[in-house]
Amino acid sequence: MSETSKIEIASIGIMAIGLYAVLQIGLLAALLPGLLIFHVVNLISPMFFRMGLNHDAGRTVALAVPLLIVSIAVGLGILEIIDLVTGPDSFVELMHRMAEIVGTSREYLPTWAQQYLPSNVGDIEAAGAKWLRENAGQLGQFSQNAGRIAFHIVIGMIIGGLVAFYSGTHNPSLGPLARALEDRAEFLSNAFRNIVFSQIRISALNTFLTAIYLAVVLPLVGVQLPLLKTMIAVTFIAGLLPVLGNLISNTVIVIVSLSVGPLVAASSLAFLVVIHKLEYFVNARIIGTRIKARAWELLAAMLVMEAWFGIAGLIAAPIYYAYLKDELKARALI
Q: Chain-centre distance of CA 111, in angstroms?
């Protein structure tokens, strides 16, 4: 085995250990914002170069702008989340309304299907209370870790910004292993860009079309669904998860539509099926052409990673899988 091959294998091993550690010790909340800021700075810095700023000045302004935008967005996001949690159209109210709808929808279902649903809302609430009791420790731990997660996000953004500031500068003192690790980091960075930026575009398109249906089409035919703003928010947030997010948002919309009547629920289901058939073409073009991954591949990766690492694995799975495919394609193995 050549020296180059040994160095490459060592760099891949170090990268694999690092990616495993990110999930194992809970650093995903730092990795993803860091990668995001890194790409945003690299995306907008050429604009300042064209305005006559040198490399350092352009990178500094390019770093300050996204941090300012993110700070404002975080502030507005916190206010919006508080409203969604405590307001009249909160997630809690959405879940309660869905429980009521499921409890009263038995009359629309065939006999064989009724046995799989609770008999009344009380049963649903009792099951929910039982789940809360059984998972109270985890929920309490999540609230305690909220500050730590916020700290990780801020530090990750700072690190990503600093890496972007110094990127593009050649360092002749780097050894062969350091250069090989830079290659691994570039593969991971490209995987993040291909998955996350593409999924944001897909989710935004899906949310826009769904909002037209919920806020324009249905009111034109005299149907006004409750919790409209919350369903649109759920559609965008859930849509950031490839494939699986659509199932989550579609389930919410169809169940809420059932509160008006089975005909509205059926029309909502039909509309969503048509929209997501269109989205599959967009998905295949945006994501499929970038990482050459089919929907079942992403689902399989998400299933395995969720079983292994929980929610963090579910979120990281598309990025990790895209990185793995990039490494394999670079070696002409797939």
A: 38
Report yes or no: 253 and 268 within 8 Å, Cβ to Cβ. Answer: yes
Structural domain containing residue 147: 3-330
Structure tokens that stand for 196 in this block: 């996350």
pLDDT of residue 75: 57
The lowest-confidence range among 4-13, 104-113, 227-236 is 104-113
Question: Is 226 within 8 Å of 259 (Cβ atoms)?
Answer: yes
How many structural domains is the chain composed of?
Answer: 1
Q: In this structure, how many other beta carbons lie within 10 angstroms of the beta carbon of residue 16?
A: 13
Q: In angstroms, rounded to a whole number, what is the distance separating the alpha carbons of residues 200 and 301?
A: 19
pLDDT tens digits, one per residue of 54-93: 666 666 776 677 667 666 665 555 555 555 545 555 555 5
Q: How far is CA 2 from CA 7, 41, 161, in A?
A: 9, 38, 36
Q: How many CB atoms lie within 10 A of CB 244?
A: 18
pLDDT value at residue 56:
65
CA distances from 282 to 68, 139, 202, 293 (A): 32, 37, 7, 13
Higher pLDDT, 283 or 192: 192
Taking phi first (over 0 means left), then psi (-120 to 50 degrees means alpha), and beta for anything else, what does residue 227 get? left
| Cβ contact 59:164 at 8 Å | yes
Assign 317 to helix, strand or coil: helix
Q: 12 and 327 in contact (C-beta within 8 Å)?
A: yes
Q: Torsion angle of alpha carbons 175, 177, 180, 184, nearest 10°?
A: -130
Distance between CA atoms of 165 and 45, rounded to whole angstroms?
Answer: 10
- Check residues 224 and 118 and name the one with the higher pLDDT: 224
pLDDT of residue 113 exceeding 90, the answer is: no
- Integer-rounded Cα Rg, in Å, for the chain is 23
